[in-house]
Amino acid sequence: MSTLFIKNGTVISATGATAMDVLVDGETIVALYVPGSDLASTAEGGADRVIDADGKYVIPGGVDVHTHMELPFGGTFASDTFETGTRAAAWGGTTTIVDFAVQSHGRQVRECLDEWMGKAEGECAIDYGFHLIVGEVNEASLKEMSTLVDEGISSFKLFMAYPGVFYSDDGQVLRAMQNASDSGGLIMMHAENGIAIDVLAEQAVNRGETDPVYHGRVRREELESEATHRAIKLAKVGAAPLYIVHLSASEALEEVARARNAGANVFAETCPQYLYLNLEDHLGAPGFDGAKYVCSTPLRSKHEHHHADLWKGLRTDDLSVVSTDHCPFCFKDQKELGRDDFRAIPNGIGGVEHRLDLIYQGVVQGEIGLARWVELCATTPARMFGLYPRKGVIQPGSDADIVLYDPNATWSISVDNHHMNMDYSAYEGFEVQGKVDTVISRGRVIVENDNYHGSKGDGRYLRRGLCEYLM
Fold first, then answer.
1. What are the start-end ranges of the E strands in 135-247?
2. Model's pTM, two decimal places?
C-alpha cells in the first residue's frame, strides 16, 4: 500500500481551521502533523507521494445524503446513472452519496432493494449507501424495515405527497414511525399535503394555467408547513425521530425550529436550489424554460424572505444538513413531456456536482463560516446517517476522503463545463469564487489538474449505523 503526504494546507473541520499536514497510508488517514515539525519532516521523507496544498483548504470529502440516480418518474428516468452521477459528484468534491432504493406499490421490499443494489454495484465512482423509500406501508414492509436496520440501511423515506405513487396516509405514517422508534431507524419525510396539491393542480389546469410556473403556485408554502407540522406531531405520537427533506419555505422552517426548541428529535435539510433560485425568475422563465426548474418542494417567491430565512436556519442549526436532492432530467424529451400540462413535467434538478461550491458562496458572502460549511456538507450528514467517523472528518482512522479546495479560484458554472448527464444547467452563468482542486477517495487521487483519474466500480457499498444524534 502506498503513502501520501499532504503538506502546507489548512485543515478545516466542523470545529475550526488549523494548519496541519496529513499522512495517508493506503485508504486511511493515519496521522496529522504540525507543519515543519520533525515528525512531519520524517513522514514526508518516507511518503511515496507528496502533494503541496499551500494556499488551499484541506477538507473532508463531501457527503451528499439525498440523491436519486436512475429514479423512475412520470414515465421516464433520472438522466444520471450511478456511473455518470457519482463521477459528477466526484468532480464536485463529493466522495460519498446515500441514494434511495425504491419500494414500488405491489412489490416486496427485498425484491426492490436487490434491484437497486444491482443498479449500483460495480458502477459507482465513489462510495455509496442506500436509504429505502417505503412505497407501501403494510405488515410485510414494516417487518422488513426492522430487519434492514441491522443490515446497514437505517433510514426510511415516506411521502405525504404524490397520491397513487408514493403517498402514505397519516395512519401509515404513524405505523412506520412507531416501527422506527422500536428499531432505531430514522424516518425521512417529504412533507407536502399532496391531496390538497392535487386539487389545486386540477383546478389550475381546468382554468388553462398549464405553464411550469403553476407547479410552484399550486404547491403552496402553506401546504408544506401544514404537512411539516403534521409530520412533527405524528412523530411525537410515535415517539420517533424525524428528518424533513428538502425544506424550502420559511413557514415550514418555523415549524421545525419550534419543535427543536421544545426538545424534539426533529431535523431538517435544505438544498442549494432553495438558497439561490426563485419562482419568478427561474420557474417563471419565459416560454417553457421554467420546466428546467420544476422540482418538489418547489422554488419559492423572491418577494418573500425564504432565502434569508433558510440561511439563518443554517446558522442556527434548525437546518442541519445541505443535500442536493439530485434528480436530473434533460430538457429535451424529458422535461418536454409536460409542455402542455405542468403536472407531467418530471420533478427534479441536477446539482450533485455543485453543492460544495454553492454553499462555499455562503462563506464568501458572510452567511456562514468555514467550519459550518464543512459541518453542513460533510460532518453532520455523516453523523446523521451512520457514517461517522469513517466519513465526514479528517482524523486518524478515518477513510482518506480528502478535498483540496482553492478559495482564490474564480469560474462560472455552465452546461459546457459540468459533468452531469443533462443538457442544461440550473445554475447557468453563476459566478463562483472557490473551486475544487484535488479530490482523493479512500487514498486514491481521482480528480487533479482538471483531469479525472477514477473509474466506475471504484466506489464501495457502505453499511450504515444508526443516527449518531439519537444514540
1. 155-159, 186-190, 242-244
2. 0.97
